[in-house]
Fold:
Amino acid sequence: MDLAELNCPACGWHTTCTLPGMLQWLQKSGMLRREENPDPHLIRELFYRSGGKFACGGCHGVGLRIEVPREEEEAWGTRRVCNVCRKPIPEERLEIFPNVQTCAACQDQDDRGEDRETPDFCPRCGDIMAVSGSRGGGMSRYKMRCPSCG
Structure:
């Protein structure tokens, strides 16, 4: 069964949809024209690549994160990412600890009781924001920007 979870990083709104739901989201956003029998593979590919263009059902902000529910992860061959740093968790760690939610580095910091900065995520695509500098008038200014969205 094809399942996907849509999550809004801004307000926390989320929903789960199946293949027909994916088709509705794509048609509503203008990503796919109405066809009688569109290819399911095409629907899945477009849907997973278009999350940044979908509008939230709660706050109406654009840019939803699309995640595969845990039961579907292995069937799709996707890798689980760390809940803290959003980097993929190595397969070896998942084999030993199948229910782990953090990578070894973040877990090590937790075990030592170290404080860590939680990264800022892009409200459009959910990617980790980066600091960029700009100069103007003899003064350096820094701002957060998304490496994916620009």
Summary: The two ends are 35 Å apart (CA to CA). The mean pLDDT is 77. Helices lie at 19-28, 40-49, 70-76, 91-96, 104-112. The beta strands are 4-7, 14-17, 65-67, 130-136, 139-145.
